[in-house]
């Protein structure tokens, strides 16, 4: 297959995986295995990258993680350990690392950024159809506070996580290709604000600040204009929807996370050395805990989840591999902006402290998009 055909197949595969993700098949059909299908389509996209130029160092780091989790699984004292659960969980790690290993051509980078930048307007159109058809409301109400939050075709937390990728893509596309995409960036920021997702808002804000001031070189007047318009836009949003947005952002409760974390810390104390088995954390959430958290079974803290699943020392190795991943990619001669890779990696790990980032494509997509937009399929001079 020619390189051009490979490129077209890769772009088609990625677009299909993301569209399948945002149309929310589980909500439409009630299909219990829709989550597995979502990850399967991303795995296909990742697999396509293996048949072309890639960062082999990333694959070595992935191998180290697989070995660590495998050793922990072999020595786990969990009587309910299942190899089937383990292999399903390791697939999620495969997706993230294989995608990160990809080296994209300039045309592919342009396509990915443009496609992701336009996702929020597309989701608005789809969600309007869902609302009219009585399938899925545009807004939902938070379990704890009862405040309304924008969710479009997803749920607010997933929309917020996805918005990190869409705001970054729009801003990056503006910097590289077309300044007019700053208006699309502004639209995507509004979507993020209305989702009232506190963590993603912080992540997106920090990443956008770096991209904006490190980019747009020689465009001082444009930067001043954007800052002024941003201040005006935010003032307008505060006047129109400030009560709802800040009511959510300034809440002190953790939406039940503290209850989950306390219970999982107890589980970790029982299995301190090799954990309960990779992927098994959700099976250690009793009903008396989930009844207090609105049915949530995810750890909402990847560091704690991995600690529970593979034990103390393996957890240090596991996340050291993530740090090493970012460092290896940042020093690669094909990387356009090493600092951006390191910042995105740091923000990704920060995100891991309060959500289920590694296992959810909506949340880890921004990490992949940043890597792809900076990892060129040719040496950067």
Which key features would you list for this structure?
381 residues, two-stranded antiparallel ribbon, 2 strands, mainly alpha
Quick structural summary:
This protein is mainly α and 381 residues long. It is 69% helix and 2% strand.
Detail the topology: elements first, then pairings.
Layout: H1 3-22, H2 25-29, H3 34-49, H4 56-75, H5 83-100, H6 106-117, H7 119-132, E1 139-141, E2 148-150, H8 156-176, H9 181-195, H10 198-214, H11 220-249, H12 257-270, H13 287-290, H14 302-310, H15 312-331, H16 338-351, H17 361-374
Antiparallel strand pairs: 1-2
Describe this protein's structure:
This protein is mainly α and 381 residues long. It folds into two domains: 171 residues, no CATH class; 146 residues, no CATH class. The chain is 69% helix and 2% strand. A two-stranded antiparallel ribbon has the order 1-2. A hairpin with a 6-residue loop joins β1 and β2. The longest helix has 30 residues. It is globular and about 60 Å long.
Radius of gyration in whole Å, from Cα? 21 Å
Low-confidence stretches: none
Average predicted confidence as pLDDT: 87
Strands of the widest sheet, in order across it, are 1-2
